[in-house]
Amino acid sequence: MHVSSVLQGSARLLRPSAAQQQLGRVRELIQRTSHVAGLNAKRAILAEYNDLTPLLQLVYEGRFHLTSRTVQKFRDAYQGCGVGYIPSNVTELLHLLNNGIRGRQACQLVNAFIEHHNIDDDCMIDTLYRCIDRHLRVGLSKHSIYHMVQRETSMTAFLERLQRCGHLLESQMPVALARTWDQPASCPPTKTCWYASRKLDGIRCLFVVTYNKAHAVYAISRTGRRFHTLTEWEHRLTRELAAYPSSFVIDGEMCVMNAEGHESFARAMSTIQQPGPKPDLVYFPFDLVTLDEFTGGGGRPYSERLECLRSLVPHLSQVGALPQTRIDHPATFEALVRDSREWEGLMLREDVPYEGRRTPSMLKIRPRCEAEYTVLGVDIRTMRLASDGIYADRRALASVTIQHGGRRVSVGSGFRAQERIHFAKYPEDILGHTVTVSYMAEAPTLKAQDTSLRFPVVKHVYREGRTI
Predict the structure, then answer these.
(1) Which residues form the ATP-dependent DNA ligase family profile domain (predicted)?
(2) pLDDT tens by residue, 360-378
């Protein structure tokens, strides 16, 4: 045999396989975390091992249907067997075990893996057994490791979907949505504090800023759709954010202001739907979260995120500062509620970490008005409704038509299921009758002489006429 062939063969034997290298990394992680005491220090070390994320995900999410004790018993009697495929690393091995291989076949696979990769060191064997037992003993709870792994994988998946498709499904958008606070006479309870701001009547818009040697900016709606008419904004923000080498999300409202300084929802909607320059649009951001916080939740409280946002806003074009008032006294809250009667409403944000869902840590207070109208028309359709606890497709009242000023308005909210079924069968019981409608505010339209209603709800139907 040629000398060079012998040397190459020896080098292959001496060079650690991918499986050995991976077990060495896991062992190193275990040793390093065992030498520090603090939880944050352990988490910081874990963050350095991103290459182990797929393996850790399998360890803490998988089900392998065998234990190290079972493998060891089988190994004592193992004489070698003809396993068709030997995984090249530990992640592949765990993936196969997680996908249903069990019993004798699983034990044969693990022992063939050990033999094939020359895993004869006691430390490496012990590390592999810890992976199979789903307990690495790194001084962190399964919840802590699982949470960090989930944040990493969810952030990566989020970016991959966004970059591949250019948009996201609504279910994939971890957007913070507000609940309604219907007791404006008292400030909501909290263990921290509230920050209050004017509720804007605009278009919700999130700028997802990704950084990988250079920035890429995506303008998306709260439902995950790309605003293709805001490419000029995306390009401008890419230039203006060149000095900020990180990935984050800016959350806010796109508004068009009228001569009185109030937002015009109709003009904002019309402007954002049209291509071309948009000099009238002003963006009012109210939150800034890292991409990690956005996709995984948690992280810094709102006060810290707000501080970062305030330092960023002055450096951006066509971006306005939305004042946030810390509520330290009931009198402050009462004054803000009074002021909000002239606005779209009031927004409250609790000084807690980010939550990408409809959350009690974000509340809206909206003043509502009431008026009486005569029902001019009805819309009867097939709707899926419950009657006596049974859901079925039924003919039902979908909405009524009223007239507000010179404009006809359709109102579909406020009816119970039995009322919808009754009025579909007997429309004369509501046609021509008076109804009380609650609404948030008058909504201007593109025709200056007409106004519509924002969020109208039928509160009461006077079947026998208005008597009180």
Answers:
(1) 191-365
(2) 999 998 877 778 899 999 9
